[in-house]
């Protein structure tokens, strides 16, 4: 691919999984990257690795997307040479628990809504003015197959990802006059820290999710995100569902016995 200097990516949730791989893919292609996450040490470690390995500029910003005041203050005051953001990837997100609607915890629901939905809104609202100012931009939201179908015990996680789908459609309509592209990528099962987080550190439960088939890798989503981000100016992939070959949808994965 073309080596692209002076392009700027902002990806949220870059301390792990998709976000980490996305930052690496873009840095390897010469992009300068703003990477974010709550875990400061992991963020700084990844920042140093990317800078040393690829020689591009990396700006690590450490905040919790659930915190509206902090998220807004940090993102509204980006250093002048970081304001020409070409691509924003709204990736930070999580599932917590896989419990039936009557048994699930309200705290888990709050956290998922505050992160997957409200966090995405706070970040978008802070970054869109730069894109408007620049006269162009590209927002890539990470949804999920859980944003296309509701599966048993998926309740509020699925709802939060359906909301990401709806918000992506809304952004696409309303931001059209500013030449801002909006893409939503809906991945199926991928082995990241996702299930460790969902099952709150129960490693065997997390591992079982990916047994008997080859799930997506974080690098697959990074490659696809990069492809979407580097199409010609007049081309926009609006909505993309991607699963591993063994998975048909939220309900059906062909597992070896
Ligand atoms: P990981 O758990 O590996 O990564 C999640 C990232 O989000 C971490 O970098 C984490 O950073 C960040 N994050 C979580 N909460 C917050 C917060 N409150 N503030 C800031 N950053 C936060 O999971 P994935 O890479 O798999 O998940 C990335 C996205 O992809 C999520 O939106 C997820 O819902 C979605 N997805 C995942 C799929 C999968 O099967 N893995 C499939 C479909 C969609 P830190 O903890 O340092 O804050
Ligand atoms: C993550 C994939 O199927 O666990 O969004 O919801 S799934």
From TrEMBL:
Coiled coil: none annotated. The keyword Oxidoreductase applies. Belongs to the short-chain dehydrogenases/reductases (SDR) family. One of its GO terms (molecular function) is oxidoreductase activity, acting on the CH-OH group of donors, NAD or NADP as acceptor. Keywords: Oxidoreductase. This is Short-chain dehydrogenase. InterPro entries: NAD(P)-bd_dom_sf, Sc_DH/Rdtase_CS, SDR_fam. The lineage of its organism: Bacteria, Pseudomonadati, Bacteroidota, Chitinophagia, Chitinophagales. It holds the Pfam family adh_short. Gene3D superfamilies: NAD(P)-binding Rossmann-like Domain. It comes from Filimonas zeae.
